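Below sits my pick:
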Amino acid sequence: METATFIPSGVNASFDRGEAGAPCIRFFDPSYVRAETILFHPETRELHAVLHESLIFIAQAPEDMAEAFGSCAEVLLSADHYSGKPVHLRAKISRC
């Protein structure tokens, strides 16, 4: 994976790319890893998570990650569980 990019966000997340160039979001709160879908707004680069029938602002994607969010079908979501073990799940990317 590439070096993570930290940017101001609504839920304290960082961004990087996986081995195949797919986008990855690392959350500091493991609750967000269970998001069903990640909504990407190409014009503003805003990312939102659909979680428990709610729309939650994540952040504005870094410029260097916008192409990956715009062209990939899935995103890897990860966080450390409260037990200390990592959690990795995938979510669909939907463009608005």
